[in-house]
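ENTRY TYPE: paired fold submission
RECORD: A
CONTENT: sequence, then structure tokens
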Amino acid sequence: MTSPAIPPRLPLGVLPTPLVPAPRLRAALGCGPLWIKRDDLAGFGVAGNKTRPLEHLLGDALARGADVLVTGGGPDSNFVAAAALAARVAGIDCELVVWGAGTLDPTPNLALAAAAGATVVPLDDVGVDGRERVDVVVAERATALRAAGRHPVAVPRGGSTPVGAAGFAVAAAELLDQGPAPDTVVLPLGSGGSTAGLLAGLAAAGAGTRVLAVSVSRPPAEITEKVLDLARACADLLGTPAPRADRLEVVDHRGPGFGVAAPGDRAAAATALRTEGLLLDDTYGAKAFAIALDRLSGGDLPGPVVLWHTGGVASALAHLGPRPSDHPALTGAP
């Protein structure tokens, strides 16, 4: 095992997050050993797993003398709110490039970002299919701030850089310290930083754990290469062995669209809620758990399996309802 060279860190979270058994969910599925990694309890605002990359992104920014963080995402982005709070803790300004910010009612995450003092730069002409433009405008905004004499640091959506991914490389070591290496870890896959960092961290530890990543945003062929490239770059930054491609399986579960949960996703979220009290968001958690629960109930994941609960509590509450059809108690139905 190679000891990694960890980038500078600004402590934000209450780590390690718990690794807990899921006996009621396991009984409902009839599956093998099952554990939940509770990054929803990371302890920094409602940032969930976004706490991990931000600790290193802000630590690196401060080490570079930055005075403003520029990043972005969608109007319901967990990362957007978390970045605004992290910048406030770091004592620097924050600008957020947000698509759709001026065309929708403020989401809890966007309201939280504004409450933290972030400046929102709306991109109202960019739809879901064009959200990649956010990163372009983030870079342009950083260039303009630099020309004005500021010291910006530009971070792409989700914090998916080698430095940001290092947060999940550390999380891999944290997981392995909490018990025997699992056979499989299941987690949602968006911009790729969490999955890439996890792969890098597992490789650094010499663990044989496989990663089942549920893609909620991009076609598997596209995002798989991005994740592997980012994992290799993260390992290079840390000075640890490059991860193996055969340790990663990417499953396409974009469903009806980014941030839109299908009925099966909501059913999986309801099962997680009613068995283990887990609150899953539509964008990431519900979709990842839907694939995991299907695989587990079908015997395709013999275990031990770790389901990584990435958080998204603010978004989950916003999408919870009430939907009378989903909650018969609200309608007086028997």
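RECORD: B
CONTENT: sequence, then structure tokens
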Amino acid sequence: MRNFDNLGPGPKIVSAPVLVVGPGAIGLSLAAGLRRTGTAVAILGRNAAAERALARSGFAATHPDGRRETVKGLVPARSLKSPASAALFCVKSGDARRAALAARRWIGPATAVVALQNGIGHEKVFRRAFGPKRTVIGVCYFAADRTGAGELKLNGGEDVLLARRKGNEAALEAARALLTGAGFRVHLKDSEEGMLWTKAAFNAAVNPLGAACAVESGRLEADPALRELSLRALEEATSAAAASGHTLDYPDMAEKLMLSCRNAPKQRNSMLQDLAAGRRTEAKAILGPLLDAARRRRVPAPTLETLAAVIAKLERRLAA
């Protein structure tokens, strides 16, 4: 088991830490990559006690081949006295406003803000909070599962997409260099809108169905009935997006969807992880815009409507 706390000479150390807001599966995946290069990482969690505990104990990351690495050397964000070099927001879309407010004290004039949420709508929150020049909107295409306290399971993939916007060139380059240096494959996209709606369509086809049936992603491709439902949901999502004028990134959406399920067969998608942990999901941010678009353009979306209703019912049970 490799320990990132004893890196030896060579790795580049940034003077100010990178702030990771939201130490869930995605946040810890990014933290692991950053620590691997010797980058200082500060973690901002929901409360100070959990933040300190994670910083004190670190976590273990298990790779798809079974290799385990220990990630240590994290810093509690609430101990920072100066701005972060960059801030990576990895919270749920519904928590965007709360997270932006909580992190404001560590966002300086030169801090690049990178928002990596599923769904649609959060991008406006971050631009209002930090301004268009500092803000970069992105999405992650890698599979990770926080399986327990101090445990992260990496299930495949390493792609991060970042969107260009007028005026954010400096922040975009800083984010690209940071994430590329941490071992991620970074792709720059000219259309933020297309990037977000594409990811929402993929999420809509996988997350609610996998969560409702409590199955890993591989089952959605291997089981004929589940595969048919997943592809129906994808077709409805892409039709709603197209009818609303949103150009998606890929012409072969169905092929890419099934390939992603095959490449990460053991992945519990984020909605399934949320329900299993007793948390509300991102269904509103993912399915809501797609269903609104379908209704406005009179595009039939019975599969998406059914899945949204099922997830809503499961969430109500959590609150009961």
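NOTES ON RECORD B: The mean pLDDT is 93. The chain has two domains: 2-190, 194-319.
STATUS: closed
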